[in-house]
Amino acid sequence: MEVTVSVGHPVALARTLSPNRRGPGDPAHRQIADGSLWRCSLMPSGPVTYRLTRAGDDAHCEAWGPGAAELLETVPGIVGAQDDPDGFAPDHPILKEAHRRFPHFRIGRTNRVMEAMVPAILEQKVHGASAFSAWRYLLRKFGEPAPGPAPEGMRVPPPPEVWRRIPSWEFHRANVDPQRSKTIVRAAQYADKLEAITTMNREDAERRLRFVPGIGLWTAAEVTQRALGDADALSVGDYHLATVVGRSLTGKPMTDDEMVAYMEPLRPHRYRAVRLLEISGTALRPRFGPRTQIADHRWH
How confident is the model over 167-180, as pLDDT tens digits? Predict the structure, then answer.
């Protein structure tokens, strides 16, 4: 099954969907040398593999599997056609220039809450390399092989009932500590209620997500950015974000509270501003000293 979506401006698929890629070798996300982008998802109607390509102002999607028809209905959101940047008029010259260079940048939404939730939980307070490795392990172990002509090794993220039943020792083998594994299991227990946030406003959606023990402001923002395409979801509590925003826009690091106050005039486009710093190459990363050792929980 396939569909073509006319976006009305040049489509940048990789840029729009890159936040959904959880590290190198993500079994649910693959970009091919020909420019096509392959993804796997689990829709209420079943698993699906889909391939996105672009042609000028159009995005073309082919889909395979029981969830194909349902997935195709969400393609406009996935490719950012439902994002509305109107009203984003930053005063800072760096943001103004980034917006001028990338006027057609859009934020996509997948409408798949658990598929954004689990990797976000895995990324809580650990090195990205460790979280990405855990995601790869768990998908390869418990994910379903991708339907259709997907690139070799792709997997569909498991359904909530599988996440709920993953034994503690398998999380241990994935180097996921008990706190994060328990949070994943709790989220899976509330999966139906969490998936319902796709019909809520952002305040109610955040409140619903944070009802789950172990889901705080940072994790809720990471989920709404991807699942809801929330252009204002600022990842407060991120280990580096306040420093990056501060150095990039003021020349000096900020605390989280300072970042929130500084970016208040950018509502409801604070996440859009952060993404523009990233994609324009103007985000100034801190100069790191020697990296701390990645915690290995498998031998505890």
Answer: 999 999 999 999 99
